[in-house]
Amino acid sequence: MKPVKIGLLGLGTVGGGTVNVLKRNAEEISRRAGRAIEVSHASARDLGKARICDTTGIILTTNPAEVVDAPEVDVVVELIGGVTLAHEMVMKAIHNGKHVVTANKALIAKHGNEIFAAAQAKGVVVAFEAAVAGGIPIIKAIREGLAGNRIEWLAGIINGTGNFILTEMRDKGRDFADVLAEAQALGYAEADPTFDVEGIDAAHKLTILAAIAFGIPLQFEKAYTEGITKITREDVTYAEELGYRIKHLGVARRTEGGIELRVHPTLIPERRLIANVNGVMNAVLVKGDAVGPTLYYGAGAGAEATASAVVADIVDVVRALTADPGNRVPHLAFQPDQLSDLPILPMEEVVTAYYLRLQVEDRPGVLADITRIFGEAGISIEAVLQKEPAEGEANVSLIMLTQRVKERSMNQALAAIARLDAVTGEPIRIRMESLG
């Protein structure tokens, strides 16, 4: 049987890693797929650039459309990133009747509904395991391994840059800006780190996970997104004192009113396994009604870690080449005509617990005024920690942990507290999840 020909769009870190894995493990991959797999074409912006892979025998071009249009290419692997050109090339590949593999989370989160509908109409597969959590096979785990479960919730550390920053802040008592600069120097963060530190990258990935877990359309625009730029080393230290760790978490939960879809800094108990995921590593915790909680951990980025997922997708596509399109695993786990219209809850309707840090004047009656406001809002206080004022300072830090309450009630209470004369500055709030 003739080899399956692969056309690569992009020969950067992941593209080069994909070539290396396919060549190094060619015999093993062929035994799994039932056919040999070869990269025959590839596009790159700069053909003269040094590569981490050997491109001998690969037809190279600077025009990705030439790869997509090459009649001998069976599977197009999109690794160029961004949305505009990637979207154009993926739709062109589908129109040409070619299967697609992509590692592009933004593309799937924003245009996945359109892409999957086009793929279904053409009878081709679009595989995207590498779009979420790098080398961790989380898409396959939820879509296939947990197919017998009603997924109740999932929570993930799905951005390595943010996790590296928070780990360094905790372990070494460093400030956010200092660690961010190091992350950029090490290549963990881009020159413009907005997508990582503001949670946009994690929201792309969470959107995909939620769609697969709950059988809903992709709805990135409805994901609540909050970054880690306001987290201070003081908050990290206080959380540790209270038995918690701060992680930049993506949370998706099924509730009676709809689906929670949110990315934000989160306090989680230090005894949880996911609280001990450090550095640039990723982890996703999934709770199914039958299996209970399951944890998936591994490298969320890197040349060969991500290439591992890309190649696994290629093998899946090759296995499906002769399968009846109606019998393939659905793109979003559920049959396309069975997707749910469950709404995405607005953040004000989400119920969670809170860590609060207030700067207040060190005088009698202040705590009583604050607890009165919380009482009127129906908010129960679980713990209070008052720090000693620094020498010569008139203000103290007041740390409070609350029980679970609707976000709208907390917003109203904090607005009232901020108006108190004894409260200086904006109250700091970090949501808490037990993940039990």
In words, what does this structure look like?
This protein has helices at 13-24, 26-33, 64-69, 84-95, 105-122, 138-145, 160-172, 176-186, 194-197, 200-214, 233-241, 303-320, 366-376, 407-418, and strands at residues 4-9, 37-43, 59-61, 75-78, 99-102, 126-127, 151-157, 224-225, 244-255, 258-269, 281-288, 292-299, 351-361, 381-386, 395-406, 423-432. It has 436 residues and is α/β, with parallel strands linked by helices. The chain has three domains: 4-135 and 303-337, NAD(P)-binding Rossmann-like Domain (Rossmann fold); 138-299, 2-Layer Sandwich (Dihydrodipicolinate Reductase, domain 2); 351-432, ACT domain (Alpha-Beta Plaits), CATH 3.30.70.260. The strands form two sheets. Strands 7, 8, 9, 10, 11, 12, 13, 14, 15 and 16 form a ten-stranded mixed sheet that branches. A six-stranded parallel sheet has the order 3-2-1-4-5-6, sandwiched between helices. Strand 5, helix 5 (105-122) and strand 6 form a beta-alpha-beta unit. Helix 1 packs across helix 12 (303-320), helix 5 runs parallel beside helix 10 and helix 13 runs antiparallel to helix 14. The radius of gyration is 24 Å and the shape is elongated. The N and C termini lie far apart (51 Å).
A few lines on this structure:
The protein has 436 residues and is of the alpha/beta class. Helix content is 36%, strand content 26%. Strands 7, 8, 9, 10, 11, 12, 13, 14, 15 and 16 form a ten-stranded mixed β-sheet that branches. It has a six-stranded parallel β-sheet with strand order 3-2-1-4-5-6, with helices on both faces.
